[in-house]
From TrEMBL:
This is Predicted glycosyl hydrolase, GH43/DUF377 family. The keyword Transferase applies. InterPro entries: Glyco_hydro_beta-prop_sf (IPR023296), Mannoside_phosphorylase (IPR007184). Belongs to the glycosyl hydrolase 130 family. Keywords: Glycosyltransferase, Hydrolase, Transferase. One of its GO terms (molecular function) is hydrolase activity. It comes from Flavobacterium cucumis.
Length: 345
């Protein structure tokens, strides 16, 4: 098994209103000699915004703002901006996040040229009710019954005066265009799906209807091993290596004490990331320390950002939905360990 080192807690909540309940699930990017961390901050009654910290080194904070950098401004995100991921593509920073309106949780996007001023592009995933999703997705045959279990919402179609939609979260962009196209992962439980487009403006109702007609063709990863058997979701932005796109994702399994979230690893083909090359048959790491086991949500390691220094991969993750930790692993050793399992494919 691959050796992973838990480096400890790198960010905790302060006695500020906007992060009163906790800080977690950070978007992380290294740019201009600094590490920029855009973390989810949770106020009372589970209202989330995005706080910002600049790091001098992987564990050394240089500065941290005392007000949110990105905060709810529109109806579709009025209850919170959650769980960001960030990449730089062609001199534009893409910050994808989960927009929560109190009923629906959907992937949204903001872009920036300077990491300070952000232009919100709105929701970029399908806004569709489950019965509509099922009708389109089953054009080529029955979908996995887990799609019904996780997305039917007990057949409730309206709540608080709003339509109850299929939750589509964990939008994570690849850090470069692939064959000239923007690509991103997203997650309708229980699997991870992929989208490839020329430009963001393509993501309209017609696009998603055609996409869902071929829904099964767009599934990248599905739960396979015991530690991820309930559902999976994209985690950190994919890392380009000579062996393929290294994807650190999260896997979830149900226990008598509730769901357990762990960090997982897989490789996808470089020029066609719809194709899985291999994945680890065991968790990369999971909740084992007290601050990962006990918190706002127990038993959670939720990876959302990475940086690489020399051969060391730093993985930043939300721990028990309360604080932010970091784990490190040798990148070369991780790739070797993944490829060792090719014999099972």
């Amino acid at each position: 098994m691959i050796k992973v080192k838990k480096e400890g807690i790198v960010l905790e909540k302060r006695t500020l209103g906007f992060e009163w309940e906790g800080v977690l699930n950070p978007a992380v990017i290294k740019h201009a000699d600094h590490i920029h961390v855009f973390y989810r901050a949770v106020a009372k009654r589970n209202y989330s915004s995005i706080g910002y910290a600049k790091f001098k080194s992987p564990f050394e904070i240089l500065e941290r703002t005392d007000v949110p950098l990105i905060f709810p401004q529109f109806d579709y995100e009025e209850h919170g901006i959650e769980d960001g991921r960030i990449v730089l593509i062609d001199d534009v920073f893409y910050f994808s996040y989960c927009a929560y309106d109190g009923v629906n949780a959907l992937g949204a996007l903001a872009t920036s040229k300077d990491l300070v001023h952000w232009e919100k592009k709105g929701i970029i995933v399908p806004q569709i009710m489950f019965h509509e999703f099922k009708r389109l997705a089953e054009t080529k045959g029955k979908i996995n019954e887990k799609y019904i279990r996780y997305n039917e919402h007990d057949q409730i179609r309206e709540r608080k005066g709003k339509k109850v939609l299929v939750w589509d979260k964990n939008v994570v962009f690849f850090p470069r265009k692939i064959n000239g196209k923007l690509c991103f992962l997203h997650r309708i439980k229980p699997d991870i799906q992929i989208v490839s487009i020329e430009k963001i403006s393509e993501l309209n109702t017609d696009f998603w209807q055609n996409y869902l007609l071929k829904f099964k063709d767009n599934i990248v990863l599905a739960p396979k091993f015991e530690h991820e058997i309930s559902y999976i979701g994209a985690g950190c932005p994919p890392i380009e290596t000579k062996e393929g796109w290294l994807l650190i994702y999260h896997g979830v399994h149900d226990t008598v004490k509730g769901y357990v979230y762990c960090a997982c690893a897989a490789l996808l083909e470089l020029e066609n990331p719809k194709n899985e090359i291999v994945r680890l048959p065991y968790p990369l790491f999971g909740p084992e320390l007290i601050w990962e086991i006990k918190g706002e949500v127990n038993n959670v390691c939720f990876p959302t950002g990475t940086i690489i220094q020399d051969d060391t991969l730093h993985i930043y993750y939300g721990a028990a939905d309360s604080r932010i930790g970091c784990a490190t692993v040798s990148l070369s050793e991780l790739l070797t360990e993944l490829l060792r399992h090719l014999k099972y494919y």
